[in-house]
Fold this sequence. Notes:
Two copies of one chain form a homodimer.
Chain A: H1 2-25, H2 27-32, H3 45-54, H4 59-78, H5 92-114, H6 117-134, H7 155-172, H8 178-196, H9 201-204, H10 209-225, H11 228-236, H12 263-268, H13 281-301, H14 310-324, H15 347-359, H16 364-373, H17 380-390, E1 402-405, E2 414-420, E3 423-429, E4 443-448, E5 451-454, H18 475-481, E6 491-492, H19 502-505, E7 511-516, E8 522-529, E9 536-545, E10 554-563, E11 567-573, E12 578-582, E13 587-588, E14 604-611, E15 616-623, E16 626-633, E17 639-645, E18 658-667, E19 670-679, E20 681-683, E21 688-690, E22 696-704, E23 708-715, E24 720-726, E25 735-740, E26 743-748, E27 751-753
Antiparallel strand pairs in A: 1-2, 2-3, 3-4, 4-5, 6-11, 7-8, 8-9, 9-10, 10-19, 11-18, 12-15, 13-14, 14-17, 15-16, 16-19, 17-18, 20-21, 22-23, 23-24, 24-27, 25-26
Helix pairs in contact in A: 4-5, 5-6, 5-7, 6-7, 6-8, 7-8, 7-10, 8-10, 10-11, 10-13, 13-15, 15-16, 15-17, 16-17
Amino acid sequence: MKNKISILVLIFALLMNISCNKKATSDDLVSQNSKGSHPKLILTAQGVKNIRAQLGSIPIFDNSLQAVKEEIDAEIEAGIEVPIPKDYSGGYTHSRHKRNWFVLQKAGLLYQILDDEKYAKYVKDMLMQYEELYKTLPLHPKTRSYARGKLFWQCLNDSNWLVYVSQAYDCIYNYLTEEERNKLETNLFRPFADHISIDSPQFYQRVHNHSTWGNAAVGMIGLVMDDEELINRALYGIKDLNLDTKAKDDDGGFLNKDGKAGFLANIEEPFSPDGYYNEGPYYQRYAMYPFLVFAEGLHNVKPELKIFEYKEGVLLKSINALLNLSDADGDFFPLNDGQKGMSYYNSALVTAVDVSYHFGEQDPGLLSIAKEQNQVLLDDSGLAVALGIKNGEAKPFTKKSINLSDGPEGKQGGVGILRNEDMELVFKYAAQGSSHGHYDKLSYSFYEKGEEVIQDYGLARFVNIEQKGGGNYLKENKTWAKQTIAHNTVTQNETSHFTGKYDIGSLHHSELHYFSSDNEHVQIVSAKESNAYPGTTMLRTMAVIKDADFEKPYMLDIMKVTSNKINQYDFPYYYFGQIIQTNFEYKTSEILKPLGNKNGYQHLFVEGLADAKSESSKFSWMNNNKFYTLTTLTNSNDELLFTRIGANDPQFNLRRDPALILRTNNSKNRTFVSVIEAHGSYSPVSESAVNSNSSLKDLKIILDTMDYTAVAITNLNDNTKLLITANTNASKEAKHTIKINGKNYEWSGSYYFE
Amino acid sequence: MKNKISILVLIFALLMNISCNKKATSDDLVSQNSKGSHPKLILTAQGVKNIRAQLGSIPIFDNSLQAVKEEIDAEIEAGIEVPIPKDYSGGYTHSRHKRNWFVLQKAGLLYQILDDEKYAKYVKDMLMQYEELYKTLPLHPKTRSYARGKLFWQCLNDSNWLVYVSQAYDCIYNYLTEEERNKLETNLFRPFADHISIDSPQFYQRVHNHSTWGNAAVGMIGLVMDDEELINRALYGIKDLNLDTKAKDDDGGFLNKDGKAGFLANIEEPFSPDGYYNEGPYYQRYAMYPFLVFAEGLHNVKPELKIFEYKEGVLLKSINALLNLSDADGDFFPLNDGQKGMSYYNSALVTAVDVSYHFGEQDPGLLSIAKEQNQVLLDDSGLAVALGIKNGEAKPFTKKSINLSDGPEGKQGGVGILRNEDMELVFKYAAQGSSHGHYDKLSYSFYEKGEEVIQDYGLARFVNIEQKGGGNYLKENKTWAKQTIAHNTVTQNETSHFTGKYDIGSLHHSELHYFSSDNEHVQIVSAKESNAYPGTTMLRTMAVIKDADFEKPYMLDIMKVTSNKINQYDFPYYYFGQIIQTNFEYKTSEILKPLGNKNGYQHLFVEGLADAKSESSKFSWMNNNKFYTLTTLTNSNDELLFTRIGANDPQFNLRRDPALILRTNNSKNRTFVSVIEAHGSYSPVSESAVNSNSSLKDLKIILDTMDYTAVAITNLNDNTKLLITANTNASKEAKHTIKINGKNYEWSGSYYFE
């Protein structure tokens, strides 16, 4: 009986698969989406038929539709507002035009799905008002952008508008008369597309998330208007245009260093073969939407381009990478300029998940994320997801340790994520990360169940909160957030990596030494940085180790610094919460002074000072009712500084977060070895503290040579574990034999642990 | 049809009521609980029968039983440990003996309910080990307490032990031989009871939560042992003992100022007729358990005492008061010494809710809290609750605005809680609050959906976290947490109320001026303090007002200070989060220095300074993705200080929380008028800021005399509301006629709002 059912299920699955593949190859769609047919961008004529046929029986789609309908009905009720542009982000006219682009797109979809003319009329009426307005508009009155828009203060937002509004236009295309279409295209869409491209080459003609939006905007309206010239301008950039390769944008990024431009170049360059986006997950999320909706449109209208197979399918791979760059709560790791709290609940990720499911391999894990998102796109891909969920195909999306290479060919370092039970470590050994990169070579952040244990500061900006610098980057982003001392890595001689210079940082990247997640008890990654400080090499090996003698997996960190001269090294731990205990004496400051006067040091107040212990220093803290202990090897010449962010912050733009900084003077070579344990808990309800003490009794380097570093970790039960990491030949195949304290160790591979 | 059902429901309800009343009057129980019968404290012989009959059909009880069974089975498996006493709170021997008392009590219940001898044997074996140990014990080796115990460093914990263990003894009483009972009573229970009472009168013979535990401990073992002398010692204190009325305990409280003692005095004195406990909710929660379990025992064994009717039923009223002293999440307001996070999920509140339901009037609101608690007591009252829930009788427990008087006769001020939609304001105008009181006359805290908007600092202590001062009160509790400047009220001339002296503070209390919650739009309370600063009177009127022109109810605060001399007034706002905007210029400090050198000022760093605006100063901040704006009337001589807690804190015992302090120099009379608006929200996922600006356009005093203060509040729509508060004759019946700016206002009652 069971077998019979299984066979039936198999047959059904095969049939489904065929039908899915059929859909995905879009043969049907091509025939229908001849150049004249509409809609064709994210909805197709056949898709609309399918959706209408299923309506009422696909809960997540029906609910998403209902929510959008209620939202748009209320907007229609409230009436159209198309104000004269005036404000920066967060201001009224900005917010209104931004709202309008969403409203137009959604109203267009409603027209197609519900076949109710009131939505088409609403879209038409608003578009006509935009047509009226746009032809009168000079450049936007606010002057802060390197590329001013007309509706918005920056071309970027104008492009956002067009990416959405071209979808609305597509949906009501057949509803309009030819005369109406001519009017809109002549006075609104074409000049609009020209302004963000030909008139703004510094914005459009480059490889950057900004230009991705620009390319997609031009391309999508081109697809709707069936305008090959615009489509080509989108795909390949503005023809025969060469820009100054030295010019820079607002953020300090080169405008166009190597002359590459257009949508395809924007896929080619920033994505590694693993799908890692060079600016990091926060900007990948932002760029994802135009990448994917334009790709959808290209897939439907120009299937011969095989856009989803471009660069070995990197667009879909990048979605998987992006989902893996989130913590247990779905929040993206704030690498580079990243605002905390951005997560896969963002609408761009609804697009990403649905598109990835529909145009990819129908990964059932994506369905569970779609369920958490609790909404789907109102298009062909949203329908596919809704049907998958309805048919009970969802499975958990399991995030494991993963190593993501950086660079167009995957050869410019990367990001390693170590996951072990509830602990997550994010280790960054990537390239500069374009203009949004930070000077944070070999830095890391550490999480427990989605809560930050050791934080990455993220960006210094209140996105879209107008009162805080117009919602734009604050100057502390540069003076603090990007600086090395703001990160959990080594700062040499109070100077940031690459002396904080983008031009230099952009030339270099760290190198993967090894990554290994085969042993479920030892998740480990190792990488090397040789350029951040000329003459100094940093080899950092980080592991998250599960050992039965410790309550939770602990972090082991071996940072081997080798230099050709004597330096000062500062090594911070950006913890959160209250200090519980130290094994060293400290003195708190009566008056708080900044730690330095530049390179981020000017933003740190010194709250306390200590001489480190001669063997290892221990520091315990409590945050969110959990205990943590850092144990780090020190000698009696080392200093420990208790710092707090917030000095020289005249607008209170920075969070007052603490750090413990290990400082060593007069060091040439130094191997920093640290363990961070997460342990125990406190309940303010029962007022009981459980396992509030470290389980680590002793931490020791027992060998440290050019080729090997060996660390012994002894717990309170007097069990000792040994980790030996190969510092030079660390390939999987390498065979090692070494003698430590008279004992022979033989193994093959990158590291030894026992 | 509907009427018929209603009648049936009514009849059913009456029947239920009769049967419940029958249970509550406990006629059955009395007959069974003759002096010799066991169990009789919180379980009765009849109760055990009833429970056994219902087992398996009362889900919340069954689940609670299962959880306890698993816990105790694991303990039995692990074996008995009765270590020689050595540690302070949080240390091993402390934690183990504490664990044992819970385990013994639960094992006793399991024996009764499951009728499985293994539990009785386990209790017996452990009690015998205690008997062995106890007779050898000197005073506990740790010397910090004013009343050292034997098992624990303080008698208080010894008393905790006995309160629980007497229940265990009660449960296995009949299981033991007379010889075994004699051994235990002679060598363990009687000397134990004597040590915490006769040998420790400074602990036992007073009115304080400590002695409540002591009284209950002595009384409960007395009930089990059927020892009238112990029972009387519990109820009335140690006979013929007079203590030094000037002596003080560890916390600075008088040991026994007026000679009162015993359980009844401990009910009489600290509870007001409304059930407010003078030390505040945190300590009420702590004292609640011995109050109620001893009361249960007395109810069962000595029904003639009518303990639940004592002082007009104050014990049950106090449970209602306590539940009302919690925020939307069930966390108690941290008035006086209160640790944040303590909530009605604490096990003492499971007792309180179940007892209140069973012995009170079967309030169906209590059932909904019991459901949230997700457990019940394994006794007669827990059964009653479980049956109530099973029968679907639970209704929401709705918290409304409430005024709770303080003082044995309700004449020593009180606490007013204003609730309006999601906003809650807690206004404290109580008496000193015994040794756990703070110098915080007319202070308040403000909440939105259970999150602190304007915080009360609470205590400076990490309860039971041994690494932080043994888990005991830290010295910063006195130097910071109790001081006036740590609270949201006025500090005059940088000196705390009553010059921070407990002896003086204890003589006085604030006076209610009026409280009114009749108008659902205007929840308002007003109180007066004349003794905190001799020669100065503070009349504070606080309202939470719902006005359609504001998104959420706003707080209006009128603090009228009248003095016979010129003073400096400091008025802090302990907000949380990031500063978003001010309407005044400020200068941040390059170097942070303490604001003063005593009375709490030594703990505040000055982060910034500003001259206030000439009419009103505005300050907006964001916390937990919500916006808040303070608008406060100022003149150009006022200063605004940005401060942060943490100066002179050599052990990092204090949280680094910010405040804005309004400082006015050379003021004699000053009426501070402020509005705090909660508005809007920010989503880091959609990156949109909604309603991030204040809706308040103008705030003005338009009249301020001895008799009246009138404030005009104008919003952005130019609608003006007027609040006139009567400063003198504010009775409900009072009739008022005044002319302001040529317009006549006539009303009766405490205030006018329109």
